[in-house]
Amino acid sequence: MSHVFYRNPYKKYPVVARGKGVYLYDRQGKRYLDGCGGAVVSAIGHHVPEVVEAIKAQLDSVEFAHTSQFTNDPQEELAELLAERAPGGLDFTYFVSGGSEAVESALKMARAYWVQMGRPEKWMVIGREQSYHGNTLGALAVGGNLWRRAIYEPMLYPRPRVAPCYCYRCPFGRHPESCSLECADDLERAIQEVGPEKVSAFIAEPIVGATAGALTPPAGYFQRIREICDRHDVLFIADEVMTGLGRTGAWFAMKHWGVVPDLMCLAKGLAAGYVPVGATMVHHRINDTFHNRRNVFQHGHTYMGHPLAAAAGVAVIRYMSEHKLVDRSRKLGKYLREQLQAACGDHPHVGEIRGRGLFVGMEFVKDRESRTPFEPETGFHNLVGDAAFELGLILYPTGGTIDGRRGDHVLIAPPFIITRSQIDRLVEILGRALERATKQVAGRG
Ligand code: PMP
Q1: Has this prediction a pTM greater than 0.80?
Q2: Parallel, antiparallel, or unpaired: how do β-strands 31-34 and 263-266 relate?
């Protein structure tokens, strides 16, 4: 009997034995093509010797020293590498151990900033529907992933949520030709409703991951969001936990639109799964406020700035830069989307294939013409994910929310080192998995 408290006690998990490149192997020797980097984590593939060596070397000097007592070389270097690559002005980095911690830190830093600016009434953070920012209570409260929130609802402080930019199911009934960015203006409405004097920040994923299958915003969306935030003295937090570090074909997704957030959350690709790590990047305006007023940011976690995590992060960024992997993510992402479109684009249950770089989402529908979703109990995304897993391909079935119901998507986000022929194989297996799932659903009548 296992003593592990599993995420899903009814599921049989194979034991992972080793990884190499884009593949994971279980104890029985079965090989899996990692088509999603786990949960959009493994950006450079498994067992990259340079990264493994860098972590070992750090272990040989010092494994841990608390950040209230010491800084350490790898965290200094990682902060510098990030500042060189981030949107201009995001010059400082606050290190933590994962995405939820990065978001919690950003929410509290925004609040602490306004307190220092003499505006202590500003505390509320506005988020969007169909969003996910983490499972800790603060992060869950600003997110709009209804099924992840459901049983914790009484524990989550209430605050407004605004419309997502979900062009495939536009909440304002618009089409690309008639779009005038009502979804962005919805933020203005919400700020006015609660009163700008109460709002400290707005948080959004640049391209929505876990709740909506790589939802990309319409042109001009984040520029409009930036204007609205500036007009009302509201900080803009970009949650780049999934999209950061090259995943969308730029070092950070906000760079696609030339928009500089005030705070930017990172995790996943930062150390690409080699060691848990997260970070909140901070605009120098905010950092200066703390510095000039000699104020301590009242927050912190034991493992922040952990030397092993930072050493892994440094090695990962160096590896990505040396091998031009961000560029590769952009180019191969385009190839992946083209191949998926050609192979599955006309499938009766494929509603839309979308995304940017090697961050691709596929939305499933019961009926393609009317875009009618499957009944939530069908769990089509899980049927596809399970069939693919059996066939040796790992996908990330996300099943977020559509119009308040559980949605149907898979994320496809392989390591950037994937080759064209491995992409062809991925697409071929995905196609077979889709057929199996379709037969299963048809068989149920
Ligand atoms: N923000 C986003 C955009 C995420 O996708 C996730 C994780 N899927 C998180 C935050 C939370 O990160 P973690 O699971 O590392 O706490």
Answers
A1: yes
A2: unpaired
